[in-house]
Amino acid sequence: MNTAVPEVELEKRSAAGNLAAGFVLLMVSLVGMWSLSTNEFVIGVDHGNDPGPGLLPALLLGLLALSSIGMIVVSGGKLLRLRRSGANTPLLHKTGRTLIVPALMVVTLLLYSQTMEWLGFLETTAVFALFWVIALGMQDYGRPSSGRLMLWLVEGIVICAGVYAVFAWFIKIPLP
Amino acid sequence: MVGEILNVFGQVLFDPVALSLSVLGVLFGIILGALPGVSSTMSLAVLLPISFTMSPPHAMMFLLGIFSASVYGGSISAILINIPGTPGAIITQMDGYPMARNGRAGEALTYALIASTFGGVLGWLLLVMCAPLVAEAALHFQSPEYAAVTFFGLTMLAYATPGSTFKALVAGVFGLLLATVGLDGITDVARFDFGSNGLLGGISIIPVAVGIFGMAEILRNIESGGQKFEVIRRIERLIPPWKEMRPLWPMAVRGSVIGALVGAIPAAGSAIGVTVAYAQEKRMSKTPERYGTGIPEGVVAPESSNNACVGGALIPMMTLGIPGDSMTAVLIGALLIHGLRPGPALFTDRLDFVAIVYVALLLAILLTLFFGLIGVRYIARILHAPKNVLMTCIAILCVVGSYAVRNSIFDVVVMIVFGAIGWLMQRIQMPVAPVVFGLILGPLLEENIRRAMIVSGDWTVFFTRPISATLIAIAFLALLYPALRDYLHKRR
Lengths: 176, 492
Known about the structure:
heterodimer; A: mainly alpha; 77% helix; B: 492 residues; two-stranded antiparallel sheet
């Protein structure tokens, strides 16, 4: 079975990515401009020769907005052109599969960070380490034997203990 | 300066803590640099928080050990598994891996080590000789010149970054914008805080660097599993015949000079240096077709250039406070954490610290040679480290390291968010280094633009002062050149 991704599919993914990035950056610049315009200490205050704290942010937001509009127009046009040429490959679900594990990592990291101060560093780190050593191990090696699973459990505990020992005992950084 | 260097060298030799930290940094650097999926910038960013409680001299011993050694470490995986451990080793693999497949893995590793040492020492010499001269010139800079140098550094980064210059500029603008979050340095006005105490304190460089260079790489590595590498296990003869080594010295010198000079250009980075050095040797060779088939020349040229870049990159960092590459961007973060502002004032007020940097780098180069020679067979075994353990450990180090900056969960969240942003940026081929550069250089740029305006009251000051005008002109030319070249090419 040929698993190589066709070039037109890659072009489509690239254009879709650029289009999404363009929209995100445009949103960032619009939110930034709103924040700046409603900040009474930045806009409309005379600082003498000093251009003031609003100049550089305004300039940068303007540049960002223009660039993002450019990205939207160029990549949107490219996507339309590819679609018209008959390139109708289903890209979302294929792309989506590769996003699942990293997205899960981000979510678990956020949970880990938010519960660290509440439950304690050692407890939350142990759970995080065990989960991911096993999850990534299964990603690479498939379903583990009991021996391998035991090894992963030990490795997870060692990672947790090792990091705690280095930061809390050796470097003396206070951890939750 | 020579007296100061010798004095510090003597002190370090009798300071067991300093020596141990240098050794530890070198070992971490070689090992992490060798691991595929762990770049030298990532190694430095992830291990940087360990240096927070060290004194500045000890921190430099540790961090420069990692910095210098990881650049060599990247060649180990490039040679043994055809995957460069660091961006600078991309060219080394072209001849290093074929050499290993031809049963000359040991020799390839030794060529890489000796060339690295040679390049490292030459880069160090350039740093010691040129940095004081650049610092002396920079002492005469005023606000317009500093603003122009900062602008020049950012545009050179966009120009020099592989891939789309436009996307690099957008990333740089985003980084500059991030630098404006929090309290304004001149008027103390709050910007973009959205009512959050965390944002009011500004976005710290370290969590962003750890996120973008560390966490983003982890996310990229875990996207799909089942990656197995074919590792060349047989490492036999380590020392190449002297007859074969002797003619390679001029090549090592040329590669080192190119690497050191390219490294000294703000934001240029080692990837450009190694490419130029390799291309130069191939062009000069009587048998260019042999390059890429597994010849020592193809290892010596890029490796000497790669390590010479280290010394070169430290020049703009120490004299102007402008990162020479992404690793020096992380180092600037480290210096700021320890209360040191890189720039020409270091050479007048803290000459002792400058001497420590010189000694730390030279010691790191020599220790890399030592451990490389005695330990290369054992270090190569590390390439078999299980990915699940490695990635989990580094993820936890990223979390703890970000927390350790200000004992703040907000910084951990910043690290995670920028890790996700960095990963998504890489997916759309948008360079990530400009974001960190923008964050570091943003305050310098804004402060100096506004100071220049406060003093002169006139925008033309940036274009009427010769150094400032020249730098701005070069920056615009660098930005317009690719478009101009394409336009002229199409017309023909």
